[in-house]
From TrEMBL:
It comes from Sphingomonas aerophila. This is Glyoxylase-like metal-dependent hydrolase (Beta-lactamase superfamily II). Residues 31-202 form the Metallo-beta-lactamase domain. Pfam families: Lactamase_B, WHD_BLACT. PANTHER family: ENDORIBONUCLEASE LACTB2. The lineage of its organism: Bacteria, Pseudomonadati, Pseudomonadota, Alphaproteobacteria, Sphingomonadales. InterPro entries: LACTB2_WH (IPR041516), Metallo-B-lactamas (IPR001279), RibonucZ/Hydroxyglut_hydro (IPR036866), Sec-metab_biosynth-thioest (IPR050662), WH-like_DNA-bd_sf (IPR036388).
Length: 284
């Protein structure tokens, strides 16, 4: 994305307008992208973090038109908190990704989660929200988070892929909520679709989505192979694998890299290929 102006609506196609939130970081790239769908009445996908300037930019673009739904791909703090203020301003329901059940919240939540995310309605895989000239259909894509959902716009062949597929970076999968097995299955699910273009939560639109998804599957399988080769030399803790796997990584991203390797190990363990003992992982 050569230019990433925040607060300026960019019409991507007749039914889709993008607004960039002012929250750039090593994990969010240039910031979170919110999408307004429709012309007469609207849906808003991922209104982003709590940010008064971003809220005002969205309301200015909405310009008093009815908002039928505020759709959430997942409840990370850079995607869902802005829904509450937008719902209060527009009266629209918050719809999409499921909340955590109370028993699960303590075990799964961390600082990146919007702990008070509470949708008015959860969209199951294949369910839709309909407006004037547009339809948004839920495509369950767990992996990045257990409740991640993408939204398909069949009128144009677009898919709003959230953080499941992004053109600028591979997706972070952090246990215990992130699950590598689910993530890989969700990528395979997208390979079976014929979406024309992806509009992700961060970064440029993906104009050759199946090619990118194929590459992401290959990348993750390559990481699996790396891990198995490294463990062939003997048991190692997760931290000891990182220097060989991420030689030139930005130090700020090391926690994400550690989580990703752990996610791979847990998936390999579930498949009976590795095991853990005394904090170290070994091949079986």
């Amino acid at each position: 994305m050569a230019e990433a102006p925040t607060g300026i609506p960019i019409r991507l196609e007749p039914l889709v307008t993008r607004l960039l939130a002012p929250n750039p970081s090593p994990y969010t790239h240039t910031g979170t992208q919110s999408y307004l769908i429709g012309t007469e009445d609207l849906a808003v996908i991922d209104p982003g973090p709590e940010s008064d300037p971003h809220q005002q930019a969205m309301l200015a673009e909405i310009a008093g038109r009815p908002v039928k739904a505020i759709l959430i791909t997942h409840h990370h703090r850079d995607h869902s908190p802005g829904a509450r203020a937008l719902a209060a301003a527009t009266g629209a329901p918050i719809i999409g990704a499921a909340p955590f059940a109370p028993a699960e919240a303590a075990a799964r939540a961390d600082a990146s989660f919007d702990a008070i995310y509470a949708p008015d309605r959860v969209l199951a895989d294949g369910e839709s929200v309909v407006g004037t000239g547009w339809t948004l259909t839920a495509v369950a894509t767990p992996g990045h988070t257990s409740n991640h959902v993408a939204f398909a716009l069949p009128e144009t062949g677009a898919l709003f892929s959230g953080d499941h597929v992004m053109g600028w970076s591979t997706t972070v999968v952090l246990p215990p909520d992130g699950d590598m097995g689910q993530y890989m299955a969700s990528l395979e699910k997208l390979m079976g679709r014929d979406d024309r273009i992806y509009y992700p939560g961060h970064g440029d639109a993906v104009e050759q989505p199946r090619r990118l998804v194929r590459g992401m599957l290959g990348h993750r399988k390559h990481r699996e192979g790396q891990i198995l080769r490294l463990l062939a030399g003997g048991a190692r803790p997760v931290e000891a694998l990182l220097p060989d796997m991420y030689a030139s990584l930005d130090p700020r991203l090391l926690p994400a890299a550690k989580g990703s390797v752990l996610a791979h190990l847990l998936d390999l363990g579930a498949r009976g290929l590795v095991g853990q003992e005394d904090g170290a992982w070994a091949r079986r």
